[in-house]
Amino acid sequence: MSSPPPLALSSLWANRKCLAICCLVSMANLEFGLDSGVIGTLQAIPGFLMVFGYANPFIPGGYGLNSTFQQLITSLPILGALVSSLVAGAFSTHLGRRVGLWVACVLTAVGVALQMATDDKGAIYVGRFVLGLGNGFLQTFSNIYCAEAAPAHLRAIMVGLSTEWILVGTVVSAVITNATQARFDKTSYQIPLGTLLILPVVLAAGLLLVPESPRYLIAAGRLQAGRRALDRLRGTSLTADELELEYVEIVKGIEEEKRVAGTVGPLDIFRGTDRRRTLLSLGTAAADSGASGAWFLIPYSTYFMIISGVPVNDVFHYFVINTCIGLVVCNAGLFALRHVCGRRTLLMIGAALNAAFMLGLAVSATVTTAFNEPARTSLVTFVALFLVSYSFATGVVTRPVTTEIVSTRLRAWSFGLTQGVSQLIIWLVSFCTPYFINPEHMHWGGKYGYIFFASSLISLVWYYLFVPEMKGRTLEEIDELFEKRVATKDFTTFKTAIRDQALRGVRGDDSETTKEKSAVEVQEQED
User: Which regions are flagged for Basic and acidic residues bias (predicted)?
Assistant: First the structure.
């Protein structure tokens, strides 16, 4: 058997089957984008404000929202996602990624139906929490699946599709809420909420065509099922020899993990070399969800602009324009990841841009008078620049890094915790933001950006000192790099042994692989 050519040479088109499957699974993140966009813009729709708000002729737009209600409808879904993310590890270990996504579809549909059917605030709170439970599972399991299913050289793109779908959801929500904002009855918010029912139905049906994660199946001891799933994902992108090489590498990597640390549980993520990996995942997620300032502007940008004196109609137009531009630059970020630079570089670029635009927003709010034209222009400009830079860099790169940096054996536990902590930070930012920006409280407005300017600079230092470059590495190579305690600066140059070991196994030169193949053959006969 000849030596297989480098797997990284296969093109995106050659991997179109895997791309289509990951695109379908990653569509789970559309629900989060839809909900974030809908709940953000509903807070500026008169029909919604008439039912859940209060009249105040001194506020631009004539209506305001009670801060407690505003905080809860924004933060309860995040709290729900926190809870479901934390239990995702135990759930996935026994039932897998696909079942988790099906459960998520049911939860999101129930949560949305509750919100559409009532004008009682208590019922709204319950619906928001249940929707959050579903969204936590959707995001956790879809991102884990894509990381485990994608070829190494295309992993950033296929996991990065999650950001693309979030932005698509935000664009769709912006278009729909812009169309219903002129209504002055309950349909002004029921129609946008109704769009959240589409994704659970489409995804639940589409999952019937999707194989389970091959790495999950192999880790569960179902070797032949894992081999078949890998074959379905790769399609014609690999030759038989290349497919065998990738399969043997996955088996060897998982077996080595089990040999080094045999248990799989929540405490294992803080033991041995997994401690470093878990902390890196948590720190990178925190830099995105908290330090960047994105969750100051994503849920509150429309309301923030209105209370800063921007006309309501203009706010909706700006929101649509910003989200459409964000979708375009998200693709530019994915292109940069594939062809221009690595994860670490783009993270540092994103942190620097985030800091610059948050500082610009804060300074302009400090030196200009409220509600005048220069102040409004500065506000709109810096909000747009921040959202564009976030969509191009930090928002695109974070998920690929946080999913691939943790071990295969503990991915559901580690990434579940990462998602949970990320949701907790988002909840804290979302909960505190109304106090900082509302006229009835601290009334900082754009000066709130000073906090995120400082935290973005801290993130820049974090990325530079601690986050390694993993571009082009298989998940098994990343496991080896951490197991051998390779320094951050040496990740790009260190030569791993797992591929050579797998190649020897494919050629029949490795006694352990011969035993593994015999075990597979026995299992196949039993099946």
Answer: 506-519
